[in-house]
């Protein structure tokens, strides 16, 4: 039997190695692409969740301003802004009726201290964040449901208590029909991911119990030693 020459370059070893290397390289590239796609989907989901959370926070903040100063008259429409946004509050009307941008997303804060104290301070809320709110009466084209096309159109209707007709030259930014209900719409965009929320806010009146007794205490002490009535506990 003839021994093979170790210097002989014939055979399939090199071809087989190259084929196996190409297969492993293809599998590796596919795995990298799969992992990268998963990370991208995870980032997008995180950004959408941040956008939703911010939209909810802006909505709650706007309803708080309504609870503090309910626009129940036409005079209130002169100070109620047509919309509020993440920009700096420049006048007293905006400061009274709009959410405080520095208290929401860190990206809208003007100082590092305000950014650290903001409600939303995650990595997604630190840049490329915008939001806007609109407060409208639930009358006219917005009586049955809120629509974006009807949010800036003329509204008219009848007051539910007095029966008087009314008409707003633009959208009614106050409780024109007197039913103590208004639409609040918020739109938040975080790194290009928009979220829209709408809520029908109702003002509720709670009776406050007023104390009927002059003094309600388990005991009473006084340094006055005069022979006279200090407290008359009879009646209410």
Structural features:
16% strand, 236 residues, two-stranded antiparallel ribbon, alpha+beta, 4-stranded antiparallel beta sheet
User: What does the overall shape look like?
Assistant: elongated
Largest sheet: 4 strands, antiparallel
Radius of gyration: 34 Å
Strand content: 15-25%
Distance between termini?
Answer: 128 Å
Q: For this entry, what is the oligomeric state of its chains?
A: single chain
Mean pLDDT: 86
Give the % helix: 25-40%
- Count helical runs: 4
| Strand neighbour order, sheet with most strands | 1-2-5-6
**Number of DSSP E strands:** 6
Low-confidence stretches: none
Pairing-aware structural class of the strands and helices? alpha+beta
The arrangement of helices and strands along the chain is: HHEHHEEEEE
Give a quick precis of the structure:
This protein is an alpha+beta fold and 236 residues long. The chain has 4 helices and 6 strands, in the order ααβααβββββ.
Can you characterise this structure?
Strands 1-2-5-6 form a four-stranded antiparallel beta sheet. It has four helices and six strands. It is an alpha+beta fold and 236 residues long. 31% of the residues lie in helices and 16% in strands. The chain has a domain at 43-202. The longest helix has 56 residues, at 13-68.
């Amino acid at each position: 039997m003839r021994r093979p020459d170790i210097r002989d370059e014939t055979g399939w070893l090199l071809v087989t190695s190259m084929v196996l290397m190409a297969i492993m390289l293809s599998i590796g590239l596919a795995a990298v692409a799969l992992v990268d796609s998963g990370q991208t989907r995870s980032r997008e989901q995180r950004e959408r969740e941040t956008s939703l959370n911010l939209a909810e926070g802006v909505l709650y903040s706007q309803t708080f301003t309504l609870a503090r100063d309910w626009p129940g008259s036409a005079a209130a429409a002169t100070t109620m802004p047509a919309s509020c946004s993440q920009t700096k509050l420049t006048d007293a009307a905006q400061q009274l009726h709009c959410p405080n941008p520095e208290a929401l997303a860190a990206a809208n804060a003007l100082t590092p201290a305000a950014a650290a104290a903001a409600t939303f301070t995650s990595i997604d809320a630190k840049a490329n964040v915008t939001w806007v709110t609109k407060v409208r009466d639930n009358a006219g084209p917005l009586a049955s449901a809120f629509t974006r096309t009807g949010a800036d159109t003329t509204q008219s209707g009848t007051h539910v208590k007095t029966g008087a007709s009314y008409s707003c030259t633009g959208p009614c930014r106050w409780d024109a029909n007197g039913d103590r209900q208004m639409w609040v719409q918020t739109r938040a965009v975080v790194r290009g991911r928009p979220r829209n929320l709408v809520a029908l806010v109702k003002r509720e009146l709670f009776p406050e119990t007023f104390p009927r007794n002059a003094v309600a205490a388990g005991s009473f002490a006084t340094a006055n030693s005069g022979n006279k009535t200090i407290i008359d506990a009879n009646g209410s």
